Structure formats: structure tokens, C-alpha cells
Amino acid sequence: MPVSVSKRRPRTSKKTETETSDKSLKDHPTCFKNICSIFSRSVLYRLPLTIFFLFFIYLWSTSTTVISGNVVHICISSRKLNDLYCLTAGSQPGLRVPVNNFTKPFSENLIRSEEEKSVVVLGNDGDKGFSNNETFSGERDSEKSTVGTSLNIIKNETFTGETAGIRVSVLDQDSKPIHEENLDSVLDQDSNPKKETVPDILVDWDSETGEEQYRYIKSKDENEETALKAVDKYLQIQRSWLSTGNNRANPGSCEGKGVYVYDLPSKFNKDLLGECSDMVPWANFCGFFKNDAFGESIEKLGKGWFNTHQYSLEPIFHSRVLKHPCRVYDENQAKLFYVPFYGGIDVLRWHFKNVSMDVKDVLAIEVVKWLGSKKSWRRNSGKDHVFVLGKISWDFRRNDKFSWGSSLLEMQEMKNPTKLLIERNPWEVNDIAIPHPTFFHPKTDDEISSWQNKIIAKPRRHLISFAGGARPGNPDSIRSTLIDQCTSSPNQCRFLNCTDGGCDKPESLMELFQDSEFCLQPPGDSPTRKSVFDSLVSGCIPVIFDPYTAYYQYTWHLPDDHRTYSVYINKEDLKAKKVNVIEKLMSKTLREREDMRSYIVHELLPGLVYGDSNAKFERFHDAFDITMDSLLHKISKNL
Ligand SMILES: *[C@@H]1O[C@H](CO)[C@@H](O)[C@H](O)[C@H]1NC(C)=O
Ligand SMILES: *[C@@H]1O[C@H](CO)[C@@H](O)[C@H](O)[C@H]1NC(C)=O
Ligand SMILES: *[C@@H]1O[C@H](CO)[C@@H](O)[C@H](O)[C@H]1NC(C)=O
Ligand SMILES: *[C@@H]1O[C@H](CO)[C@@H](O)[C@H](O)[C@H]1NC(C)=O
Ligand SMILES: *[C@@H]1O[C@H](CO)[C@@H](O)[C@H](O)[C@H]1NC(C)=O
Description:
The structure is a single chain. The strands form four sheets. Strands 7-6-8-9-10-11 form a six-stranded parallel sheet. Strands 13-12-14-15-16 form a five-stranded parallel sheet, with helices on both faces. It is of the alpha/beta class. It is globular, with a radius of gyration of 23 Å. It is built from 24 helices and 16 strands. It binds 2-acetamido-2-deoxy-beta-D-glucopyranose (5 copies). It comes from Arabis alpina. Residues 1-25 are annotated as: Disordered.
């Protein structure tokens, strides 16, 4: 291919993901079909352009040294291509691998790690710890070798129904000269500069239902609009699966709700935990897998507090599901089949080792094969099966264009089952996001209510806080702007510098959050942040800059109306310096803050934490209960 990309700005992007969210979501099973056909039409129409474009992006991205952010601003929901989903805040996490010396004990790296997804694994140093010349060339080399084939795959892709929804948002400025004529529709940057006054959110009306909708960012073109509509539809579908609490009305009844847990060979789960000392080259994970994977307890924070790693969801969920009151041992009595494969921990082992793609996929392929031998799996083609994958969807969606991660979720067999992830692919309806695990794992109702009482009464000395690090090399990141605004209003805003180790301990972070009214939550290397949940659990109102951080993720655990629990500030406005975060938050009245906090603490908090594996809650439903009830509801609606 003669396309050569000499100039690149790997860390720059202007991407604008627009999102719309219906205020009141209803059940629209038929809308789903409509949207599908709209997609396939628009996709077919744009296929040639898309092919070129993907290929261009592919070449471009493989030529970058550090694919650290926002290289690819294309949102695709095709089955084969979906790793390119709108990574509004980052792209392939952690293609960079540190080769310098990490000497700090890993347990001190938590905040850093929640600071950036990849950094969890990269160690505490994050941005400062490895420089651009330290790159895992092995990964990139292997990508290059697939240049020839990727186009074929794309050409051969049959776009059908739900899998096809393509949207291209905005490319980098630098890419413009290359094939301008083909790209103008997608390069329409900043064509519509907003006026001075920036409303909280734009409101418009759904053309089908006439209902009021919130629009987080204006879409720039038709494609973007189509893709965003798809996001919205998928969210509506997922919300329709949310269990309305009938289970609570009928406690103890497991009629038609049997949960079957496969007894997988231990190489798919327990043995992986056994590799804790060697999971990533510079850190020891063993401490994190203690106490049913809650990690070491943190006495200082009280009962039920642990140093939990953000990627520990798989074993945490597994322990809990083994004790589910509706667990059955006869698969014929089962409604829901739980596959305890620790796919995230599996892939984490390989992220920073120079191994071939085949190696990365060994367990994924084996587990699918193992299931294929089961009648229970074949009976409903996996539709009543669920996987919990404690990492971001992207880590499981390797394809021909990128060598990051495993291809577990790219496998055809994995399409039907429900995948519970800490970050979902917004164009995959069976990808369901559930909360990142926090440090709090209560065992009883009383532990929850005493925590609620404590933080609701807590005097908060800071109006705003931001615990994070800058992204010095990333001009697209809004973090520097936030840090500037924060540090220039020291009376209102407290900045905890994670880059110099300021947030190394969970205690410091939790203290800061408990002491703050608002917690700024800009995207890291991927849109979601564990910190959003830490902040909610501390009663600190999260300030969200990207709808993909939360609004388009946690359909079962966060309500549709984001204003009840968060403040949204459009990051494009922030970037364009049209809004000052401090002023904006200062304008919130005491009443508004109290209403939000009360809602967060009393309504949301219990449902955001994963209780102890022996937990017996009567008054509350924790994140696990909500998830299990909704899964059962989903299956009963879909089978
Ligand atoms: C890493 O740091 C440790 C302790 O500071 C030191 O003993 C060791 O030699 C260093 N390793 C490398 C490769 O620099
Ligand atoms: C790049 O790596 C070399 C050695 O591998 C090191 O001496 C140099 O300082 C690094 N460059 C930067 C910008 O960190
Ligand atoms: C990774 O492994 C391949 C094959 O063994 C080797 O050619 C390559 O140099 C390695 N890359 C790194 C960064 O070690
Ligand atoms: C497309 O797929 C078909 C079968 O699915 C295969 O026979 C053909 O070789 C593929 N074409 C390309 C260009 O890969
Ligand atoms: C945060 O810490 C890093 C490393 O110590 C430092 O370079 C940076 O200037 C600090 N940022 C602020 C805003 O103080």
C-alpha cells in the first residue's frame, strides 16, 4: 500500500462522542430490529470508504510508537472490528511497557493504578515511569506482519443486522492531508463552535417516542448520529433487563431461578491465581488474592475495608456465586449457567510478556471448546450463560489490527452469552458493565448503614478534589486543564498529585474523597475509572467529563438520569476553555449537593459494593445481588 504516514500524532485527538440518553427508558424490543436495518443500510453504503479508512487507521496506528490515546476515533459495532470502539479517552491501554526499575511494592500503587487502567499493571509510576522510547516492540512487530491480511478480513466481513453499525467520529488533524477528499465527512472538526453560554446538557426529543432525551455532546455527522443512536438503543435494552426487585418481594424463593456453576478445571481459574507472583514482571499480586480476593484488610478504614485490586472481580464474584441461595447442582434445574473462567487474569498474565498471540488465546479457545462439549451450553447456544471478566472489554477483543489482549470476545461462540465487565463495548448488547470493585466489602446490613451514617454526616472541607496525574505527553487530555483550574483555586479545590506518589495508599484517597463535595473524574487511558466508584462510596459527587465513563456503562447499577448522582461537564467545552470547572461547581447550591449526596449514599451506595462472600443482606441489595437478579431477568426475557 502506498499510503505512508510520516507525520503522526499518536497522542492527539479530537474526538467527540456524542451520547444521548433517554430520560425514561422503556422496553423496546422492536426498536432493536429497526435500528439494525438502519445500520446495515448505512454501513453498506459506506463500506468502501470505511474499508479505506480502517486500513488507513490501521497503518497509521501501527506506525506509532506509543498508541496511547485517541489514535483511533472510530466507533464500530461490527463483530470483527469492534475493538475500535469509541475509545473516547484512550485506545489500546498499555502498549507501552516499562523496562525501567520498579522498586516500590505494588500494594502502594493502587491509586496510580486506578489512575490509569494500564498503569495498574504498569506499576505506580505511570506516566513518569516509562518514556516513549521504551516500547514493547514485540507487540508492534506482530501487528505489522498482519497488515496484508487485515484488509481481506474487512472486505470479507458480512455486515448483518445488529453487528453492523459504523460510525466515524473525528480524526486527527494531521491525517487530513492524506486523503482529504474521502474523509471530509468525518473530518468535520470544530465546524460548529458553540456560543459562549454552555448549557449543562442539550435537550432534544426522540424522534420515535417523542420523549425528552439528553444529549451529552453534539454529533458531528450522520454516522456519528447513527452510532450514538445505537448506543442509546442498546442501553435501553439493557435497562429493560434490570430486575425490578420482585426477587426481594419473594425472598427465599428460588423457583425458576436456579444458578448452576460449572466445575471448570482449575487451570481456568484457581491455577491462574497461583501465578500471582509472576503475573506482571515487576509486581507481586499475591497479597491481592488473599481474603477471597478482597486483598489485605485495611484496619484504619474500619470493618469490611480491604486493599482490593481493581482487577479482582473474577474471583470475588466467583466466591459469591458459589454461595448463591439459588445455586443448583443439577443442570436440568438451572436457569442461569455461570462459567467461572478468570479470563481477565488470564490475559493479564500475557500483557507484558513477549508471547505469541496463540499463547494468549490458549485458555480462551480451550474454555470455549470445553463448553462446546456440554449439552447445557448447546441447548440455548450459550444464551443462558454468563462470564464475569474483570477487565475492560477491549482486553478481550484482539483482532487483526491490534495485538493487544486475547480474542476471547471475538470468538463467534462468545457472542450469545452475557459478559459482565468493568467496562463494556458500547456496541455490544451482551457486554454488560458492572461496578469496578471498591475497597469496601460489607458483610451485614449494619456495616452498610453505619458507613452510610458516617459519610452522610461527614463535614467536607474541600468543595472539589482531583486525585490524578497529568498526561504531559497527551495534549488531548483534559487533565492538565483540570489541574490548572484546580491548583489556581486552592481554597476550593484540592489536587492530590498521583504522579509523585501522593495517592499511593487507598486510605489517602478515601480520606480525600470523604472530605470533598465533588470529585473530578476525567477519563484515564480508558473511559471508565474505578475512582468513580470509590468516590460514590465516599459520598463524593463525581464530576464526569465523558459519557462513556459512566452514563453509557452501568445500566443496572446507575440510574438513567445522571443528574441525580453526578455533574456532567462536556470535555470539549473544557478543552476549548469555555467552562471553568471550579466556577461551575461553585454554582451548585447547598440544596443540590445535599440532594445528590443523599441519593448517592442512601439509594446507590449499597448497590455499588460487592459484599463479603458470606454476606447476608436483608435490607439491601448489593452490586452482586442486583447483577444476579437482572441476569435471571434477562434470561427469562430472552429465552
Ligand atoms: C532495581 O532496583 C533495585 C533496588 O533499588 C536494585 O537493587 C536493582 O539493581 C535495580 N535493577 C535494575 C535492573 O536496575
Ligand atoms: C531511552 O532509552 C535509553 C536507553 O534505553 C535511555 O538512555 C534514554 O534516556 C531514554 N530516553 C528517554 C527520553 O527516556
Ligand atoms: C519477542 O519475541 C520475538 C520472537 O521470540 C523476538 O524476535 C523479539 O525480538 C522479542 N521482542 C522483544 C521486545 O523482546
Ligand atoms: C472470504 O470468505 C470466504 C469464506 O467465508 C473464503 O472462501 C474467501 O477466501 C474469503 N476471502 C478473502 C478475501 O479472505
Ligand atoms: C506532580 O508531581 C510530578 C512529579 O513529582 C511533578 O512533576 C508535577 O509538577 C506535579 N504536578 C503538580 C501540578 O504539582
